[in-house]
Amino acid sequence: MSPTHTEVTTPLVEPAALDPCGRAGHPDCGIRDVQDRIGDKWTVLVVVELANGPRRFRELQRAIDGISQRMLTLTVRRLERDGLVLRTVYPTVPAQVEYRLTEMGAELTHLVKALTDWSLAHRPAIADAREAYDLDHPGHDIR
User: Burial code of 64-87, b = ≥16 C-beta within 10 A, e = fewer?
Assistant: First the structure.
């Protein structure tokens, strides 16, 4: 869009009815902490991996490219604390630990799938929009 752009566009699809945050009495709608967890870089990847069934720690680590042992430990701990992942320790030597999604975690996979499908469907349009924006706003590198 250029600085002289004046066309008003209306969406073909009406946005969902969402109650905006920031109103008196509910400044963050009580969802910010949950969104922070779900929006975490590694959480979605762990949930996607566990959607295919229980995994041991090392299996998760090998499956998620770039995640460190520390970040995986923190991520599964946080997901366990939030009730999305169940951690089972088997009494073997050495102890075996397995992670699986809880029922609530399994519900989350449907939202992740919907977001993934939306992302794939709109990827070309987003790439085009970014290219057009970058051409109209030279020097504004916001990547």
Answer: beebeeebbeebbebbeebebbbe
How far CA 53 is from CA of 20, 45, 72, 105, 110, in Å, comes to 36, 13, 17, 12, 15
Q: How do residues 44-82 score in pLDDT, each as one tens digit?
A: 999 999 999 999 999 999 999 999 999 999 999 999 999
Cα angle 42, 32, 20 (rounded to 5 degrees) comes to 130
Residue 60 DSSP SS3: helix
Distance CA 77, CA 97 (A): 12
Q: At which residue do the structure tokens 């073997």 appear?
A: 92
Minimal CA–CA distance to 72: which of 89, 55, 93? 55
User: Which residues touch 48 (CB under 8 Å, ≥6 apart)?
Assistant: 109, 112
Contact call for residues 102 and 58 (beta carbons, < 8 A): no
- The pTM of the full predicted model, rounded to 2 decimals, is 0.74
Q: Which residue has the tokens 């923190």?
A: 74
Q: Using CA atoms, how far apart are residues 87 and 93, in angstroms rounded to an integer?
A: 17
User: What's the start-to-end Cα distance of the chain, in Å?
Assistant: 18
